[in-house]
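Lecture 7 notes: from sequence to structure.

We start with a single chain of 227 residues. Read the sequence below before looking at the structure.
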Amino acid sequence: TSMTSAKIQVNGVHLHYQLTGEGSHAVLLLPGMLGSGQTDFGPQLKSMNKQIFTIVAWDPRGYGQSIPPSRDFPPDFFERDAKDAVDLMQALNFKKFSLLGWSDGGITALIAAAKYPTLIHKLVVWGANASVTQEDVRIYNGIRDVSKWSEKVKKPLEEMYGHKYFAKTCEAWVDGISRFAEKSDGSICQQLLPDIKCPTFIIHGEKDPLVPQAHAEYIHKHIKGSR
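Now the structure, written as tokens:
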């Protein structure tokens, strides 16, 4: 099956996406912090069933090949990504679609499913969190300096962005996500979870170094009927 790689204008920016498969079930893959379809979802783009699914992997604004603009982290950056993601799928003429999101992409997917319930078919998230604790901030600061990252994780990102953009954007991400911890409840999207009505599956890696498992348990508890 062929793979399309293209850009489309959405909300004033040119968003890059990859598309493959011709199934009736459309699925959007949402990458994590600093991620892109290419770096985060190679195996899924290659191996997901192309007869059942039409698979779209996107690069959020400022990530992957959706540059310019440079990535920034205003207080509503997750909501902005959620709107961009949904508007991208509508621009590609998908009336209803499922979301598979990991890490920051999982948070984006939670917000999209809560805010655009008529458009979302099913939801799968892994490595996501609905709030930021002081402990999380401590963990985030441990990855602020990209020179301390393992070669395996660092290499593909450095190749995509160049060292300077990669380093600068990682620092900006740490600052941006840490800001949620300054709120009394530390919430990113806790208040939206009860609004998620689609079938939801939550996955968590017990060795996840960045997101403690309590976050997955909280999401499961607050999305009715989730598994």
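The longest strand covers residues 3-10. Keep this in mind for problem set 3.
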